[in-house]
Every structure is written in structure tokens, then in C-alpha cells.
Amino acid sequence: MTRLGLLIDVTRCSGCYNCFLACRDEHYGNDYPGYSAAQPLYGQFWMQIKEVERGKFPRPRLDYIAVPCQHCQNAPCIDAAKDGAVYRRADGIVMIDPEKAKGQDQIVASCPYRVIYWNADLQLPQKCGLCAQRLDQGDKQPRCAEACPTGAMVFGDLDDPASEISLRLQEVEAETFHPEYETGPLVQYVGLPGRMVAGEVVLEGSDVCAEGVKVTLEGGGETCETTTGAYGDFAFEKLPNAAAYTVTVAHEGYAPQSFAVKTHTDVDLGEVVLTK
Question: Residue ranges of the alpha helices (H) in 51-126?
């Protein structure tokens, strides 16, 4: 059995938009009978790039999340379509039939990820098909993965333990985009951003940066530790939303400080000054 999937490593994505441009090059103005109608010039992004800003000056973070069709194993678009206009191939790719789907705008509204678009000129819902037209001709990857210069996208057979994607999944902690949708997507992610708690430590009376200071985050039955970097800064990332924590900053010869924080938003403690 074959299940084709895509693993997207957010930590490796530089925001170059090569995947977006490659998708546009493949589908804009190009008909693939039986697979897809031509993508229009405006209004459709079969590979979305979501820019997620976190934190604030002087410790901001910016992540890029590539979001194609998730090719769900429990696909709402299949349920919403009539007459088999949306179907799942034997390899797991979810396709929109460019003939049967005409006039079925309810397919667009069915997608919780908002990655299906309405072509008003053709009266047709459209989306990413993982370049199925290329795969069926012997190509090994969709254009997006082929164009990625940083290796942030890995494509392959999830049911083949020797495939690159299966080997990578053994090494990383993969997750799904919006797991609350419970759609069982074949697109998985590494490093999706969460809430962040950050700050900077200053040692009173010292003329050097407070590098190597121990910072502890406790809450929810877990304890995480880190040390400050070369400029005295620290950050805890990928934290859940609306969680309560205690942050403790401690260094030998200095009085420790503790702070209660809640991650309703990203938290920046600013300068934490430790006194002797």
C-alpha cells in the first residue's frame, strides 16, 4: 500500500517563497485534463505561506508556515461533494474532478484549512493536488518539494519504512496543523510555533553579559531549564496557549527572582536584574 505525504519542517523554512512560485509556475494558465483546470492569475494560493510573528522588540521571532492542501484521510471536502466530484486516490492524494465539481461551491466552504478556492470564471473549486499529473508521469516529487532550497519539505511514501519521509519521521516529533480539526492530514509538520516566554538577564555590578545564567520554567506538571545566551537573553518556545507558569532566574552569588506568567499571549519579561 502507498500513502504519499509531505513533511514540512518550519524550523528550516527561510521564507524564500520558492514553493509558492513553483506551484504558480506549474499551474497558472496550465490545464491538466483529468487532474486540474488552469489556476487563474489572481486570488488563488494553492501553497499558502503564513507569516507568524511572535514576541516583541528586542526579542521577536518570525516563522513561515507553508500550507498546501492537507490531503486529509477524513476529508470534509469529500463528504461535501456530490457525484464523486472530490475523491481520494489509492495513494492518498485528495483530488477535485475538474468536470464533476463544476458549480459545487459548497466544496470551498467545507475546508476548515481554507485551502480550496473558487474560480468564478470556470465556476469551479480548485486546490493543490500534490502535482499528481507529474507523479503519474514518473516524477519523484511535487514542484514545491523539488524547489525547496533548505530541505524544509520532504515528500514520499509514508507506508514505506525505507523512504526518506519515513526515516525523517523516526527522528523528529511531528505534529499536524490544527489538530482540533481531526481530519487526519497526510501533511505533517515539525516545529510549529507556540507561545513564547522570553527575557534578558543582567547581573548587578557586572560589566559583562550575563551568559550561562540558569532559567527554569515550571507549570502543568513539567519543568524546563535553559541558560542565557551570549547576550544574556533566554526564551522558552512552543508553549501551549493560556497556560500558567513560574519562571525562576538563578545564578551563583546572586539572589534568585521568580515570576508568575500566563501564556494568553507571548510574554517578554524584559530585563531581569539579579542583585547580590
Answer: 76-80, 106-110
Closest CA to 202 of 259, 276, 261: 276
pTM of this prediction?
A: 0.88
* Residue 145 DSSP SS3: helix
Helix (H) or strand (E) holding 19: helix 18-27
CA distances 39 to 25, 43, 120, 275, Å, are 10, 9, 11, 62
- Measured CA to CA, the distance from residue 165 to residue 197 in angstroms comes to 32
Phi, psi of 114 (to 5 degrees): 60, 50
The helix (H) or strand (E) run that includes residue 35 is none
How many other C-beta atoms are found inside a 10 Å radius of the C-beta of residue 234? 24
pLDDT digits (tens, 9 = 90+) for 108-154: 999 999 999 999 999 999 999 999 999 999 999 999 999 999 999 99
How far is it, in rounded angstroms, from Cα 253 to Cα 121? 72
